[in-house]
Amino acid sequence: MRGFMKNKAFEKKLKELKRLAAEEHMGVFEELSRIETKYLGNGRQGNAWERVELARNSSRPTSLDYIEMLFDDFLELKGDRSSGDDPAMIGGIGFFSGRAVTVVGHQKGRNLKENLYRNYGMANPEGYRKALRLIKEAEKFGRPVITFIDTPGAYPGLSSEERGIGEAIARNLKELSRVSVPIICIIIGEGGSGGALGIGVGDEVYMLENAVYSVITPEGCASILLRDASKAKLAAELMKMTASDLLDLGVISGIIPEGPGGAHESPEATAANIRILLERRIDYLTRRNSSRLVSDRSARLLSMGSIAGRSGEAFSILQKEKGGILNRFFGRKKR
Amino acid sequence: MKFLDAFKGLFSPGKGSDKRKNRVEQKPSGGEKSGAVRDERSFVENQHSCPSCHLHIELADLKKNLFVCPGCGHHFSVTAWERIEMLADPDSFRESDDVLETADPLAFPGYAEKLTASRQKAKMNEAIVTGVCSVNSRELALGVMSFSFMGGSMGAVVGEKIVRLCSVAVQRQIPLLLFTASGGARMQEGIISLMQMARTSHAAALLEEKGLPFFIVLTHPTTGGVTASFAMLGNVILAEPGALIGFAGPRVIESTIRQKLPEGFQRAEFQEQKGFVDRVCPRSKLRKTITLLIDAHRPYDLSRQSG
Questions:
Q1: Does domain B78-297 have CATH number 3.90.226.10?
Q2: Of which family is this protein a member (chain A) (predicted)?
């Protein structure tokens, strides 16, 4: 116990130093990061940039790879019934341990040719609308939904703007928050901003050990906030985008360990870990009463951000209201 | 915020401030202005002409005309407080949640200082002002975002204030109107800022479930995470003429497709033509339009709140 406390104090001091160093001296910051990894690193505190590189590794299993390993008789279903089909977003129905489920996910390519077809996993509005259509279908027929998130972001192109990429994502966020069947989201690689969130609203959100999830790429953050594009490594650290960071921030429900060497080296072992988790969680969530499911999801979404922070008065103001917010919408009935 | 770089040079985000009045009854005068508001105003003050069409005009006349150029119809940027004054019945606005402060969840270097500076300059607690007011005697929950407070970026507090405002609309059974102006998510709050997209969109879903109308007025500029969340979820979406509205900023798109964007791309009129905005509504008609919308969305007796 004493050792643990000591470790905590050390960790705290180190964090403080790192924060100071980040403002003053990049070299010192990097040195401190190395010390942190060496002395505190229990595998969970790896260098953020290494995780970013791992998450982007082109030989990491993609959504379709996991689908192949996890679901029986997967049948891909295409199109948004409005303007087209988007190969950067795939979806369909399949069976998981004998139960019919709906699966949607971003789809990256393995090589240049595939990536040109899949648009590097950057979905257009059709992709988000297709995903919503399939999830709505799942709701009608009582199938649980599993989403695989793996995208650098939604596609920032001319035609995607013309067809309303903002509206498509916004609609998904709104609709997914009220769907009456369980939704489990798993970030398998890159969780890039709004493009990831567009299929990332659910009852439980998990991340693979080496996945990352952030509001902007570290490169983008570096060039805008730090005014130096070469500081991407520093930005990755500052933005707290690794699985363990996000667990600490209360944004995700848990971390799924990858097989030895990472998912790209042990895809099967990684898929097996996902299977164990899904078996438990799908079972649990489908047994829940659907109105309870939806109101719990509601509470979870509304409390996002209230969890923020260090100490201080501001924190307590937000915290005090945490339980109250939902009551404001639904009256004072017992929760 | 993600696409803020697209606006470099046009504005000076983060360094700015709106002027602040606690209540609208304190008449706006002088005060510190920033970014586009300051630049445009000082142009008119010094050149006595519209920066867009160069028509001769004085600042006082411009103000009388709701900060719209009588010549070319250019809509000048206005502060959140000016917007409230132009829309709400005199003295009717009551601000809420003006003490909330972010907890700086990532302990991002320099963020706390930047916020303190913005807050002191702006005398606003965050990038949105929320409260309840009346418009032509009709009660309304009103939120106005301010681009000059750190680029109107959405962090935990902006999200919190919007969620709370939605809850006020539900409790008081009144419509909700939001003016948007934002560069997107607040990067300094990392993933927490991204979560505000889900959170505010969910609040919009709850409003809908409770049968309450939700109106949006998109103002210049509205991009990034705000466009991809509550801004696109209004039952009726209005936009100010010429406002830039999009998900990705123009520079990001240009660097992706490696070609110049067509004239008028992502402007309010473009979004209207593409079907994502119900109406482009000039400032002069806004009060009337909002009144009409409130009346048209009432399931209950019209006489209940009028007079």
A1: yes
A2: Belongs to the AccA family.
